[in-house]
UniProtKB/TrEMBL annotation:
GO terms under biological process: regulation of DNA-templated transcription
Residue ranges of DNA binding: 130-236
Domain OmpR/PhoB-type: 130-236
Annotated protein name in UniProt: Stage 0 sporulation protein A homolog
Single Gene Ontology MF annotation: transcription cis-regulatory region binding
Domain Response regulatory: 2-115
4-aspartylphosphate: residues carrying this PTM: 51
Amino acid sequence: MRLFLLEDDDAIGMGLKYSLEKENYEVVHVRTKNEALETFSEKSYDLCILDINLPDGNGYDVCRYIKEKEDVPVIFLTASDAEVNVVMGLEMGADDYVCKPFRINELLARIKTVLRRSGRGRDGSISETEGILEIQNVRIHLSEAKVGIVDETTGKETTADLTALEYRLLLAFCNNRGNVMSRNQLLEDMWDVNGDFVNDNTLTVYIKRLRDKIEKDPANPQIIRTVRGLGYIVDK
């Protein structure tokens, strides 16, 4: 699995590269905005880790360039946890952010979570052929982050208008099909647009909203089923 690392501080960059390679990731390390723009198109990557403050620009510009080229998961490294920086990154399509200074184990955990949410396996492959997941009459286009509902009579597909968090929640279920997911497991992966982790009560609201948008009969859900006392399950 190949990671793209943009970090201008050599001490941090080399330390991260060493630690990530110990976890069997292949890491391409660049130090400037211009080097990042020149290097990114030479190979394909499973995830990008981008520093925001650079000597010749910022990581936002690089993220914008990457997202125009390919839908690759992005984690920002930032020296500031100011809300404006976090929101700007998430609105730009970033999947997560980590504030400096950070523990390497924290970053490794975030990487694994983002890769799992994005539908990429440990080998870097999309979990379904051609980047499409299908569950009953729900069709998830991973490369476009779009969800369609297929009419079983006509075959016509209409787009379900999911929020970013509803989409992440659906992916979490899809990537664990056949396994019961506890509320605690779901809460580990969920946060709102401001970067705040979702609490238990809010999770209930998001699951209801998601069911309202994808289930034929939300009052009797057949896609995201409740396993009483344990959590939720999406069948294989």
